[in-house]
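Before the break, one more example. Copy the sequence into your notebook; we will annotate it together after we see the structure.
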Amino acid sequence: MQLGAFSVSLSVKDLAASRAFYEALGFSVTGGDATQNWLVLRNDGVVIGLFQGMFEGNLLTFNPGWDQHKQELPRFQDVRELQAALDAQGIALQVRADPDSEGPAFLQLMDPDGNVILVDQHVPRPKA
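Here is what the structure looks like once it is written out:
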């Protein structure tokens, strides 16, 4: 399976405090909007998202169609294809993508230990 770019999405209590902490570790803000309570930070190839009040718990996030620097890939495995492959393996999904949609879509599943995995595709299906 080609899951795409990987990041950890952290549910934080205080966005400013978390930003200062991760900047002290060498991360720099590369995206997001603090006025909307979310930021994306990067340290070389490591990407973390800080999200205040948007969801409970932390997420492992994969972005089909992007490399680690948010550059669109010419070819990738679409989230709907990933969903079909997970279905074929009998893996339960908590949130499903509309299989007939064409644009960005996402799905969500949980690993055996309760860790939430978000597969969040921001780009349209790849061209055939």
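The helical segments are 15-24, 79-88. The radius of gyration is 15 Å. Try to locate both features in your own notes.
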